[in-house]
From TrEMBL:
UniProt-annotated stretches for the region Disordered: 1-65, 411-430, 531-554
Family: Belongs to the LytR/CpsA/Psr (LCP) family.
Biased segments, Low complexity type: 411-421
Protein name: Transcriptional attenuator, LytR family
Superkingdom assignment: Bacteria
Keyword Transmembrane annotated: yes
Keywords: Membrane, Transmembrane, Transmembrane helix
Residue intervals passing through the bilayer: 84-108
Pfam families: LytR_C (PF13399), LytR_cpsA_psr (PF03816)
Domain LytR/CpsA/Psr regulator C-terminal: 438-523
Stretches assigned to the Cell envelope-related transcriptional attenuator domain: 163-310
Length: 554
């Protein structure tokens, strides 16, 4: 990944005006809980310079959103179509597509739908990792676009009419089974070159997905390998498709003027409409200051809630979710790549394996507009930790949304080493996993292709894998290691999403490989988290078990 060299945003230019239709602007009569000109620190440890004077430039005036927001919100509320949490959905694609053969009939349709909006400029902007199992960064964007706007004269279909209301930089570690979600405030001040100093969410308006990706990559100081965006209409439908989600709110959420939400504190189940409203309810936190930050924390909580529900729901949840996703997600990843990635996260525990935080900023109120000025020093430290596979914060006090907004996973650790040993996570072992060595994969089931699918997953992670049939049917999936290959066995178990610790081979199994994996009936039944990548693509055919011999044919 690239070096962390985030440059402090500078002050510049003339103030933004307005020509285009307005979208969810912070209205002048609803400040962030501070008087005009106030400087509010959001996770920032280093004071910024003077407030930017006249940010923006005249040529970009049509991108401001100070007018008409209230009318548009009321219109959308009357029609019952609500602003949604967008960034969650592609994370879910990477998890749910691994659901098995039940999804196979949908793959061609899904693949066509989700990649249709990706152009060569975006593909040229994305940077491939050296090895398939390496950690990578993915940009998740929520666009303030829906079918109604796309068909209207005021907006149309061109990207220049839209902005990114949700920006999440995700670090995905397939080998370690960890996902880090870092929210970047949409009002963050950045230098957009000839377009002047602008809010970061304007990058999409100026240059679409490719330019937005380039801007975020430079801002965070990392290469971005994958991209996903979603429009307004999807999240509520996905939540309803999986039967709702459960969240735990630290404080009550009341927002009578804008979203109409009135939720009590505590654990509760939300339907799609309510979950979508919670993902946009920033004014419910005006009394705390900086409602966007609390809203972003709730969005990350909702991502975790949906992941948890989908992973527990099996095929009955996966199939409708995948079908719904295909109409709303745009990503550079085809379904085969997503399915392969998903196999690395079958054993994910959202409370332990997801890290969460946000870019530290200082609020500046200038010319009736709020901007977020990045605390560059604090941001660099956070990204250094994220790049090492650590939670974003060293100290719990850095997460100022804790105890007010929702939360997901882990945000804080004091250690300096990546938390990739066996503590927590999939719990496969207490040694640091290694992802190299030779692995013999044996099919101890009556289903064809199980060993081949497992070997493919292991090869993608860095192992050298061969396959064969086990001498007899096995009830339980087990990882055995020979000699001192326990760390390699731990890597195999983690890659396959197995919770049971590897076992020392007593000579009952092959001793010529570092590791032996024996797939058993529990893998097929799902108790060993069996939804693997090749299953999702239709590979492997079920055959009848007519004897006590494993007849899977690898």
């Amino acid at each position: 990944m690239g070096k962390h060299s985030a440059t402090a945003p500078q002050q510049a230019g003339a103030s933004e005006g307005d020509v285009r239709p307005q979208i969810q602007a912070p209205l002048p009569d609803v400040p962030r809980g501070h008087h005009a000109g106030a400087r509010t620190h959001h996770g920032a440890s280093v004071a910024a310079g003077a407030a930017p004077q006249g940010v923006g430039n005249p040529s970009a005036s049509r991108y401001s959103r100070a007018k008409g927001a209230e009318e548009y919100i009321e219109k959308r509320q009357r029609r019952g179509r609500h602003h949604v949490l967008r960034a969650a959905l592609v994370t879910l694609v990477a998890l749910v597509v691994a659901g098995g053969a039940a999804v196979a009939a949908y793959l061609y349709h899904i693949n066509t739908a989700i990649t249709a909006g990706v152009d060569d400029k975006l593909r040229d902007t994305l940077v491939e990792t050296k090895d398939p199992g390496d950690p990578f960064y993915m940009l998740l964007l929520g666009i303030d676009k829906d079918e109604e706007r796309a068909e209207s004269k005021d907006y149309g279909k061109d990207y220049s009419a839209y902005r990114t209301d949700t920006i999440i930089l995700a670090r995905v570690d397939p080998r370690d089974g960890k996902v880090t979600l870092i929210s970047i405030p949409r009002d963050t001040l950045v230098d957009l070159g000839s377009n002047g100093k602008q809010k970061i969410n304007a990058a999409y308006s100026f240059g679409g997905a490719a330019y937005a990706t380039k801007v975020v990559s430079e801002f965070a100081g990392v290469d971005i390998s994958h991209y996903a965006e979603i429009d307004m209409d999807g999240f509520a439908k996905v939540v309803d498709a999986i039967g709702g989600v459960t969240v735990d709110l630290p404080v009550e959420v009341k927002d009578p003027k804008y979203t109409g939400l009135d939720l009590p504190a505590g654990k509760q189940k939300l339907d799609g409409r309510t979950a979508a409203l919670l993902g946009r309810a920033r004014h419910a936190y005006d009394s705390y200051g900086g409602g966007d930050f609390y809203r972003a924390a709730n969005q990350r909580m909702l991502i975790g809630a949906v992941i948890t529900k989908v992973m527990k729901g099996g095929a009955s949840t996966i199939v409708p979710t995948v079908t719904t996703l295909s109409g709303y997600v745009t990503t550079d990843m085809d379904v085969t790549s997503i399915a392969s990635l998903a196999s690395s996260f079958k054993g994910i525990d959202v409370e332990k394996d997801v890290y969460s935080g946000q870019c530290p900023t200082i609020s500046e109120y200038v010319n009736n507009t709020w901007y977020e000025v990045c605390d560059t020093a604090a941001w660099k430290k956070i990204m250094e930790r994220v790049d090492k596979g650590l939670p974003p914060y060293e100290d719990a006090s850095q997460d100022f949304t804790a105890g007010v907004a929702g939360s997901v996973g882990v945000s804080t650790s004091t250690g300096d080493d990546a938390s990739s040993s066996g503590a927590g996570g999939n719990g496969a072992t207490q040694v640091t996993p290694e992802y190299t060595g030779t692995v013999l994969v044996l099919n101890g089931t009556s289903t064809a292709g199980v060993a081949g699918n497992g070997a493919s997953t292991l090869t993608s992670a860095g192992f050298t894998a061969t396959t064969n049939d086990a001498p007899s049917l096995q009830a339980k999936t087990t990882v055995y290691y020979n000699g001192d290959a326990q760390a390699k066995a731990a890597g195999v178990a983690k890659t396959l999403g197995l919770s049971a610790a590897p076992v020392q081979n007593d000579g009952s199994w092959d001793t010529s490989s570092d590791v032996v994996v024996v797939f058993g009936a529990d893998w097929i039944d799902g108790s060993a988290k069996s939804a693997n990548a090749a299953d999702a693509t239709g590979a492997g055919t079920t055959v009848s078990a007519g004897s006590n011999t494993a007849t899977g044919t690898n």
